[in-house]
Design a protein that fits this description.
It is built from four helices and 13 strands. It is an alpha+beta fold. It has a six-stranded antiparallel sheet with strand order 1-2-3-12-5-10. Strands 9-6-11 form a three-stranded antiparallel sheet, with no helix packed on it. Strands 4-13 form a two-stranded antiparallel ribbon. A hairpin with a 3-residue loop joins strand 7 (108-112) and strand 8. The radius of gyration is 22 Å and the shape is globular.
């Protein structure tokens, strides 16, 4: 044969219908998607007292919705409190529904070779916000949301693109827990109302 590598590439007897599986998956998508929710009612949006804080998940890859590309949650920050402090590779935007406060951001120096390394810069940047604003968090930025009011809660809507996670880059690291976090605690409507209550 004309190709010198033929002694190598002709080896192997395994057969797999990998391309056919892609065709089958595409053909089955309409029926599969009919089973997935397009409307999510408040009672179907799970609460979580997470290390990042008090969350009500609106869209998540684990919620069997039609949404393919975005995860979103509402975050409640009680009066005078703050979110957890974390970093993730995906960029994030947050809409401020209620309250006022500020974000603390630290950029990271990143190096991607055979491995992935990052180092937090010393400078902490502060960004003030209030109801109606949109907060932008750049990729790989250490960030935290702070409620500046001693008597009013903050409610934020967070949206993050899933593309990084789907590409195997779910680089999420919690650096500080929210003050409200208690492992294993289950949220109830009454408890959430307590967090919302103005002092």
């Amino acid at each position: 044969m004309a190709w010198g590598e033929s002694k190598v590439w002709l080896k192997g007897g395994a057969n797999e219908a990998l391309y056919q599986n892609l065709l089958d998956d595409a053909a089955q998508a309409p029926e599969r998607n009919r089973q997935r929710r397009k409307v999510i009612r408040p009672e179907d949006m799970p609460w979580e007292l997470a290390r990042q804080g008090v969350l009500k998940h609106l869209l998540n890859s684990q919620m069997n919705t039609r949404m393919e590309t975005v995860d979103a949650y509402m975050q409640i920050i009680p009066p005078g409190s703050r979110s957890g402090r974390h970093r993730h590779l995906a960029e994030e935007c947050l809409y401020v529904l209620e309250g006022r406060g500020y974000d603390l951001h630290q950029d990271c120096d990143v190096e991607i070779t055979d491995t992935y390394h990052w180092k937090v810069q010393d400078e902490v940047k502060r960004f003030e916000w209030e109801a109606g604003d949109v907060i932008y968090v750049p990729p790989n930025t250490v960030h935290q949301h702070v409620n500046a009011s001693p008597d009013q809660p903050v409610r934020l809507i967070s949206a993050v693109n899933r593309i990084y996670k789907q590409c195997g880059l779910n680089d999420l690291e919690q650096l500080e827990d929210a003050p409200e976090y208690q492992p294993g605690m289950q949220l109830t409507e009454a408890l959430v109302r307590q967090y919302l209550a103005r002092k």
